[in-house]
DNA sequence: CGGCTGGTTGATTGGTTTCAACAAGCGTGG
DNA sequence: CCACGCTTGTTGAAACCAATCAACCAGCCG
């Protein structure tokens, strides 16, 4: 169970040993990206995807000269289609927030594996649905959650996603994002993120120190965030 | 060219007469939904999708008792997967904003048609990519565009999408949304939408009367909105 | 040590919400 | 037919949340 992708996909539908072996076979060309640099588009194969093996990355979009919005976070076990940005290379980038390792899955390999192993195909399809649901939920957060609710919701989402791939305990998870990153994700300034963070700490809900998030009251946090994990589509277990 | 879906898909990749015929064959069970009511989930076939034949609909998400966010708009020619909300029926609904007619495409039919007609498969795949890009762009708008920029961007997006299916002229398009709808889309109150709308009119960029949008200065509007249509993935023509 | 990044704090400004009232359009029923 | 209610749009004043600007602190690393 070394591979987070394998672990995550098995949370969408049960995978046999054969499925798991095929998945490993599909992973090619591993590469490392240094923190705070852009992950270059895969030239040649427009239907290839990257699997994030370790580290955190993000999709972001620049508006004008001094505005930048992080539109999604990519965690270990996530799939990202760089083809989605082939057409818009000018203004949409995927970049590493920490040191990141990725493995390429070619379009041909993807088709081969998903037709030979329907369970894998189903799991990958559900992964796509979950990704879309996360994106919608970010829209909801930005559209109608208050500052403190947004932050609470993000913490719930990330804790849940990381726990699904074995990278979080019941109460803690790694949290390499800076307050500036959080600000660009949640549509606020880092100054205000800072104050909101203090408020959450004051309410004894979470604390964030030394790149680690500790959740003191998950129920309270979820309630404040109006967080309902069903949209992430993980099955129990 | 009566069907908007056909017209839209042909904007992603050229379609042969056979492709078009197959697409028509795939459309089943047409049904009508009255304005301001929910479109019920398709029970039974979780991989079936709906094609919007006419009218405007939206996906929306309720938070608490009095907050509601419209997360996406569904226009004629759009596909929507009601399976995406099977798992979260409680809090995510698709509802008609105007009278709407939809046609069901069963999961089996979808697979059959896309394997027999690769061009159709490609076009539908690209449609999915474009939908995801639109969702990301809404995230960007809510995250870092000002009130007036958001409204300008939405107008550009909708005009472009409607023009792609032949429902808009160079300068006008139907616009059945109320200011309250706009507010729930753009994360603001209808009062503020009202004032922003007046500002856009004052700048001679657009006017909105009698359920019709008139764009007086598309270049100016796009500039104000930081609108770049490439993300919609329509090919020229 | 110096310089850098990331975090913290305070004072001020400003964009939006909220609340409240009112006008216009429209379909319905007395 | 007009009255009535309902939805949609419009306007003003006050309150508030978050941005801005600016300064400062802590930790880290070359």
What topology emerges from the helices and strands here?
2 copies of one chain form a homodimer.
Chain A: H1 4-9, H2 17-26, E1 28-33, E2 49-54, E3 57-63, E4 67-74, E5 79-80, E6 92-96, E7 100-105, H3 107-116, H4 118-144, H5 147-164, E8 172-174, H6 179-186, H7 190-202, E9 206-209, E10 212-215, H8 218-225
Antiparallel strand pairs in A: 1-7, 2-5, 2-7, 3-4, 3-6, 8-10, 9-10
Helix pairs in contact in A: 3-4, 5-7, 5-8, 6-7
Chain A binds a DNA duplex (30 and 30 nucleotides) through helix 7.
Number of helices of chain A: 8
Tell me the CATH architecture of the largest domain in chain A.
Answer: Sandwich
Q: What's the CATH first level of the largest domain in chain A? A: Mainly Beta
Fraction in beta strands of chain A: 15-25%
Task: List the defining traits of the structure above.
homodimer, 237 residues, alpha+beta, Jelly Rolls, Arc Repressor Mutant, subunit A, 2 domains, 4-stranded antiparallel beta sheet, 3-stranded antiparallel beta sheet, 8 helices, globular, DNA-binding
Can you put this structure into words, describing what you see?
- 2 copies of one chain form a homodimer.
- With 237 residues, chain A is α+β, with helices and mostly antiparallel strands.
- The first copy, chain A, has 2 domains: 4-126, Jelly Rolls (Sandwich), CATH 2.60.120; 146-232, Orthogonal Bundle (Arc Repressor Mutant, subunit A), CATH 1.10.10.
- Chain A has 8 helices and 10 strands.
- Chain A has helices at 4-9, 17-26, 107-116, 118-144, 147-164, 179-186, 190-202, 218-225, and strands at 28-33, 49-54, 57-63, 67-74, 79-80, 92-96, 100-105, 172-174, 206-209, 212-215.
- In chain A, the strands form 3 sheets. Chain A has a 4-stranded antiparallel beta sheet with strand order 1-7-2-5. In chain A, strands 4-3-6 form a 3-stranded antiparallel beta sheet.
- In chain A, helix 5 (147-164) crosses helix 7.
- Chain A is globular, with a radius of gyration of 18 Å.
- At the A-B interface, strand 3, strand 4, helix 4 and helix 6 of A face strand 3, strand 4, helix 4 and helix 6 of B.
- The structure holds a DNA duplex (30 and 30 nucleotides).
């Amino acid at each position: 169970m070394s591979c987070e992708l394998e672990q995550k996909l098995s949370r969408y539908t049960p995978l046999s040993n054969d499925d798991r072996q095929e998945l490993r076979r599909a992973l090619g060309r591993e590469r490392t990206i240094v923190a705070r640099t852009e992950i270059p588009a895969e030239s040649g194969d427009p239907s290839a995807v990257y699997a994030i093996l370790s580290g955190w990355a993000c999709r972001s979009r620049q508006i004008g000269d001094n505005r930048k919005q992080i539109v999604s976070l990519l965690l270990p076990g996530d799939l990202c289609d760089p083809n989605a940005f082939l057409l818009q290379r000018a203004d949409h980038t995927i970049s590493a927030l920490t040191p990141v390792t990725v493995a390429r899955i070619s379009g041909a390999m993807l088709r081969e594996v998903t037709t030979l192993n329907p369970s894998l195909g189903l799991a990958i399809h559900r992964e796509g649905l979950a990704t879309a649901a996360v994106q919608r939920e970010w829209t909801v957060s930005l559209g109608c959650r208050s500052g403190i609710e947004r932050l609470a919701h993000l913490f719930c989402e990330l804790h849940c996603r990381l726990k699904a791939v074995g990278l979080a305990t019941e109460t803690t998870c790694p949290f390499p994002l800076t307050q500036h990153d959080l600000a660009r994700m949640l549509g606020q300034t880092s100054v205000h993120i800072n104050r909101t963070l203090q408020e959450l700490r004051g309410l004894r809900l979470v604390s964030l120190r030394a790149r680690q998030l500790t959740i003191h009251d998950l129920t309270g946090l979820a309630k404040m965030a109006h967080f309902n994990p069903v949209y992430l589509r993980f099955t129990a277990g």
